[in-house]
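thought: fold this chain, then report.
action: predict
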Amino acid sequence: MLRSFVTRFFSLSMIAVLSAPPAWAADDPAREQSRSVVMTQYGIVATSQAVASQAGAAILAKGGSAVDAAIAANAALGVIEPMMNGVGGDLFAIVYDAKTKHLYGLNASGWAPKNLTVEALRAKGLHKLRTIDEVTVPGTVAGWDALHQRWGKTSFAEDMAPAVALAKNGIAVTETDADNWKTYGTPFKDEPEFARVFLPKGAAPVAGQLFKNPELSQTLERIGQQGRNGFYSGPTAEAILKLERKLNGFMQADDLKAFQPEWVDPVSTTYHGWTVYEMPPNGQGIAALQMLNMMEQFPIKQWGHNSQKALHVEIEAKKLAYADLQRYVGDPHATEIPTQELISKELGERRARLITDKAACSVVPSDVRQKLSRLSSDTTYLSVVDRYGNEVSLIQSNAGAFGGGLVAPGTGFPLQNRGGGFTLEPDRPNTLRPRTRPLHTIIPGFMQNGDRRIAFGIMGGFNQAQAHAQFVSNVVDFGMNIQAALEAARFTKRDFEGCGVWMENGIQAQVIAGLRKQGHQVTVWPRYFQSMGRGNAVEVDEGSPVHFGATDPRADGEAVPEQMPF
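observation:
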């Protein structure tokens, strides 16, 4: 036996120089994904940071619901990844209630102040939004509160407890967060309060450094004790309003107190037997559904995964879908949006006929491109399933990295700059109006086929809708499990016009060469490139007692199972 082991060991070490694998290798399972799907009959929390996943899993073990775990994990992520998310940002969630077998959507994206109008800016001699004007009311805490009121089992204080402890005792800064902290935090070094909180000793924390945020710990503790009232009134609200007054902003106390999130029905389309759900506008989710409607008109499966033909169609479908996204999407409370027409099969068929064998470089008008592209990919997404099969697909963001770099003294968190997504041009769906919400990039996803249900999401600004479509195709067309579907090499088209497209080097060189001949201006990036988005997913199959979880290697995350009871 020892001789057999030694022979096999040395055979493995020499495999790179062999002209063909040894015969025994045929018995070894091979795969391209980097890690296994997590499986358990209990709950799973999948986030972009292992410690945040553990925080959510701990709440599940205490008897918390999937929603409790999602809130706990999200709060922890705000401590660990302050550039990506936190209580100063917005939130969207899709929740599957296993008892009622119903899908619920929550839009907790905040509005512009009631006194902030294009005319008010002009009266101040302003022709563009200042950083303070880009601060919309943070919707996250109101979103947590609404979710907890409906499905919470543990107390709000218990849900906040892991994040409170992390902020007070410190978090070890991870590799990707250290890179992002340095890249996106350093430009705000001249903002005194930002620098004091997030650039200790004048520099971004490095990987492995312990970072503490005692003021954020106090903010989170108030939220745990008082719910939404601990944020939209009291010391935190007063600090935000004091900063607004100092910078001559428009936000008033009533803008914070009056804000309420909105329960909505997710919108959907079908793709080869699966039903795919997204949130309705003011988000970009309908672009993912439009892409799928166009992709369904072509034999993607027959052509092969990431083949030249398949990628060409997907890239062109993205351009067409995002053209409509820019033209039609805004706040449905302020402008009429033809959502059902945009996600209809009929429109998908018509738009698909516009795809030729050449790359189209002028599908999208350029008048609002620069304004839209200002919003970067600084978001966190998480998914949760509890032991009863309830699922949460939740996404949360500061808009830009660290928002606009504004931190109200004593709060410990940056305020989002989501208002930068508005346009000041008149009479557009996304024109700045009082107490309206801008076109939003962050979108949670959900898909179902019979007894199989997958809560999924992929971060990355305007990368998200196109990444959703690729994930769905990976599962549906190519039968990938959720881990492989997240890991598969992706493309992303980061702009809204032209033929430029980014691809990971996991896509074959001959495919890229062929796409270039079709007119695509391809830039190749390293494998598991963070700008392709960072995703997570959980899956339930009613025919099995086992639940499944997956997380993207493009981040420092982990899908953590609930501790089994014993």
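thought: worth noting. The radius of gyration is 23 Å.
final: tokens above.
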